[in-house]
Amino acid sequence: MNDEENALLDEDKDQNQIRAELSQMSFEDLQKLKEKLGTKVYNAALFGPKKVRKIEFKRENRNRPREMSAKKPVARFREIVHAKKNIPRDPRFDSLCGTFSSKQFKKAYGFLSEVKENDIKKLKKELQETEDPKMIKKIKYLIQRLENQLREGKRRDQKEQKVSEDKKELVEAIKKGEKPAFKKKSEKKMLDLVSQYEELKSSGKLKKHIQRLRKKNQHKDRQKLTATDME
Q1: What pLDDT does residue 36 have?
Q2: CB atoms < 10 A from the CB of 150, how many?
């Protein structure tokens, strides 16, 4: 006999001895003992420890996957996997998307000015064909809006071109050994007004611009008068 078989025989003898002692006790004493020890310990002492039956699954073919038991205990602590939070990013204000370059923007979206000019032509054609007053009002508003956008874009381009020309003049003056002449803000403002005046005059919209400025100034004067009267 090996050691394992000897241990099993000793365990059986102890269990038989415990059963013999318990058989001489009354039912009331057995109940008290059961309450004192607990059902699990009492059953283990009387019937022996519960043996776990290990089932081994055999494969009919060794190439098949091994069959596993589905009766596995669930883990007490569940592992929680935190999902990554989706943070929206605005490419206009995100450094990861690069920096804004006006030159690259013009190069990539320069075709939009041509699209707007074509849209203006189509809208003007629709304006001649339609007779609905609501549609006429809507088309006029769209034409005015597109024309303002084109005018503003041209003015911005001219301003940037003027700035680049001034920089070139300064660089050339420094190269020649001359003292660079920096223009004051008042001079720049006056030059901008002159260029704006020439642009409006050439487009035939100078009169409308003057009328709009006059109305704006009159509105400001009225606001000042009402403010003084309230005081």
Answers
A1: 74
A2: 15
Look up residue 75 and give its two tokens: 């883990």
Q: Are 146 and 120 in contact (CB under 8 A)?
A: yes
Q: Measure the CA–CA gap between 170 and 173, rounded to whole angstroms.
A: 5
* Residue whose C-alpha is closest to residue 144's, from 156, 154, 152, 134: 152
CA-based max dimension of the chain: 127
Exposed, middle or buried by CB within 10 Å (0-12, 13-18, 19+), for 70?
A: exposed
How far is the C-alpha of 175 from the C-alpha of 17, rounded, in Å? 116
Residue 122 has pLDDT above 70, yes or no: yes
* Separation of alpha carbons 196 and 151, rounded Å: 11
| 139: number of Cβ within 10 Å | 19
Q: Would the pTM count as exceeding 0.90?
A: no
Token pair of 142 as six digits: 């769209």
CB 180 within 8 A of CB 170: yes
Residue 34 and residue 66: Cα distance in Å, rounded? Answer: 44
What tokens does 224 get?
Answer: 């000042």
The mean pLDDT of the chain is 76
Q: Note whether 26 and 36 are within 8 A (CB).
A: no
| Token reading at 85 | 């939070």
Report d(CA 150, CA 112) in Å as an integer: 10
- State the Cα torsion 152-154-157-161 to the nearest 10°: -130
